[in-house]
Q: What sequence folds into this?
């Protein structure tokens, strides 16, 4: 990955850790800034928990990565559209009567909006995440027919090299959505507060900030 390192963790049969925790089980999985899949729990008649296969674990990881990039792509695309709207609207004739009253305001707004889009390259970041999402879906599609999870894991690791630093709140939400799509138990989900969801694309949080309901003792 580009600016940071993180290991994907496979939780034990009784716990699930944060998507960015740096721990290993019997064999270390490749670094991943996005998500980790739980190990296949032993069949438990008391809880009725259904075991999960290695292929399903890999699919959850890929799906969480794809959802992460979709969220980030949408965020940057929205910022880009807003800044372009401000630039165009500030120069329209509809606002011309106000330019005499506030001669410096609208040029300043236009310049600021243009600088935000240019300096932070929000449109470029949107395209980056769109491209990464497409690559991950390609890996996921190929994994269904290849039967070689190790080869697919290696392909996924190569994609990580192009990924920017992780936003861990987005990561946790993406992980929960991927787990939900495969019907995994709620105890493995990350507990995410309202403000963490609201500012997920603005605040990076910490690698171990989010914990599962099981880790927090909340079932």
A:
């Amino acid at each position: 990955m580009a600016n940071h390192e993180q290991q994907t963790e496979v939780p034990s049969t009784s716990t699930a850790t944060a998507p960015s925790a740096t721990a290993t089980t019997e064999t270390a999985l490749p670094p991943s800034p996005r998500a980790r899949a739980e190990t296949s729990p032993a069949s438990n008649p008391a809880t009725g928990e259904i075991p999960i296969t290695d292929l399903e674990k890999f699919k959850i990881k890929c799906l969480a990565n794809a959802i992460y990039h979709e969220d980030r792509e949408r965020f940057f695309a929205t910022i880009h559209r807003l800044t372009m709207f401000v630039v165009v609207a500030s120069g329209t004739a509809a606002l011309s009567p106000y330019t005499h009253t506030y001669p410096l305001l609208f040029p300043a707004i236009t310049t600021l909006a243009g600088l935000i889009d240019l300096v932070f390259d929000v449109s470029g970041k949107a395209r980056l995440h769109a491209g990464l999402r497409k690559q991950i879906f390609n890996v996921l599609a190929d994994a269904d027919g290849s039967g070689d999870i190790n080869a697919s894991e290696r392909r996924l690791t190569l994609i990580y090299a192009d990924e920017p630093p992780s936003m861990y709140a987005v990561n946790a939400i993406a992980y929960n959505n991927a787990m939900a799509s495969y019907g995994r138990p709620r105890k493995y989900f990350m507990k995410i507060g309202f403000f963490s969801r609201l500012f997920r694309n603005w605040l990076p949080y910490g690698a171990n900030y989010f914990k599962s309901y099981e880790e927090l003792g909340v079932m």
Remarks:
- The mean pLDDT is 78.
- The chain has one domain: 54-216.
